[in-house]
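ok here's Aldehyde dehydrogenase, seq below lol
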Amino acid sequence: QCIVLNSYNLLTFKNERCTELFETLGCEGEIRLALQHLSDWAAPRPVEKTLMTLVDQAYVQPQPLGLVLIIGAWNYPWAVTLQPLVGAIAAGNAAIIKPSEVSSHSARAMEELLPLYLDTDLYPVVTGGVSETQELLRQRWDHVFYTGSSSVGRLVMEAAAAHLTPVTLELGGKSPCYIHSDCNIRVAARYGPDHVGKFVNCGQTCISPDYVLCEPSVQSRLLEEVREARLKHFYGISFEDYGRIINQRHFRRIMGLMEGSTVALGGDCDEADCYIGPTVLKDVSADSKVMKEEIFGPVLPIISVSGVDQAIQFISDREKPLVIYVFTEDKKVGLMIADTSSGALLANDCLVHFTVSTLPFGGVGHSGMGCYKGKHTFDQLSHLRSCLIKSSSLESVNSLRYPPHTQRKINWLRLLLLKQIDLKKSEGWSWSTRGRGACRENRRHCAP
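and the structure came out like this:
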C-alpha cells in the first residue's frame, strides 16, 4: 500500500511509516470489520414489545440513505476520508468523495487510484478547492459527512440546512490533558506531552492534547521528564519520524500563537522547511494567545491549576472538547467522567481510543455531531427504519382502542401498552398463534 502511495509523493509532511501506522492500517481494519460483520449489521433488529404487540412482528430494518457526500481533511487524508467511505458502501449508499485540496498529492492519488477499484458511477472522486466544495454543497444530498474545522463545519451545516440534509461533523477543538500528582509522571510525559500524544504528525491531529492542566509541582517534574524523553527520542530537524507543518500559512499561524508565552522546551523552527520542533510552553495564562484557538501544531501549553476540581471547572467553562485525557491512579477519572462533557474520555494514554472500532468516535457541541467507526459508521449512514407488522389474530384486543372509550377499556389498555416484553429475557418459551405469522421464539424473534 504505502509503496504505491509513496510513488505519488505523498510524503511532503508525513513519512511512509506514519502513513501506514496512522492511516492505511486503520482503513484496512475498517474494511475487514465490515466484511466480517456486514450480514449482522444489515439484519433486522428485534425490539422489545408490549402486550398489545406481543404476536406482531416489530423490528428495525437498516436501509441505505441514498447519496452521501464525504468531505475529507488534510491532516490524515486517507483515514478520515476512506473510513467513512467504508461505512457508506457497507450501508448500501452511493458516495461522492471530496478529498482536501490542501493535501494535494493525496487528493491526486485518490483521484487516480480509487477508480481502479470502485465503480466511478457510484463512487466518483471530485478534486478541487473552495469553489468546487461550495458547488457540491449547493446540491441536494441524503447525508453530508464532513471532517475539518469548526468554522467550515458551520458553513457545511448551513448549506445542508437548505435541503434539510442530515450532517455528521467531525470537528476538533482544544482537548485538555489533566495530569494529577499521583500518576507516573514519566509515563504521562511519554504518552501525553511527548511523542505518543502531542507530537505525532507534528501535532496536526484533532485528538492530540491541546494543553496540559496540572499543579505547579507537577509542571516542573513533567518538564524534566519531557526533556529527558526528547534526549532519548529526539524529534530534531533531521529525525525521519517527525513530520512537517502542512504549509507556510499554517507555519506562520502556529508561530504567531506562541507570541507572549514562555518557551520551556523546544521553539526551534525553519520556515523554509515548514519545520517547528516539539515545543512546550510553561506558566501559560488562560487568556494568552495560544489558548484562543486550537493549536493544531507541535506546541503544548502547560497551565497551572490547584487540583482536579479547578481542572474540571476550567474545562467546563469552555467549549466541549473532542476528547479529555486524564492521567491519574485514583478515582479522579470518575470525577472527570461525571462532571465534564466531551466526545470521548481516555485515561492514562493518548489517541488510542480512535483505534477501537467498537467505540463511537465523534464530538459533542462545538467539537462536532454524529459519530463513526465500525458499526457506528454503518448506523450513521443508514436509515434505521421502524417496522411493525400487525397480526389480525387478536382483533378483540385491538378493539379496545375503538370508541366508546370507557374507563374499563382505558384500564386494560394501560396494562397492555405499559407492560414491556423483553424478548431476550423470555428465551425458552414460545408463543403460537395457530400459524398466523406471529414471531416465534428464536434468536431473531421478529425477522420478517
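fwiw The first strand starts at residue 45 and ends at 46. kinda neat tbh
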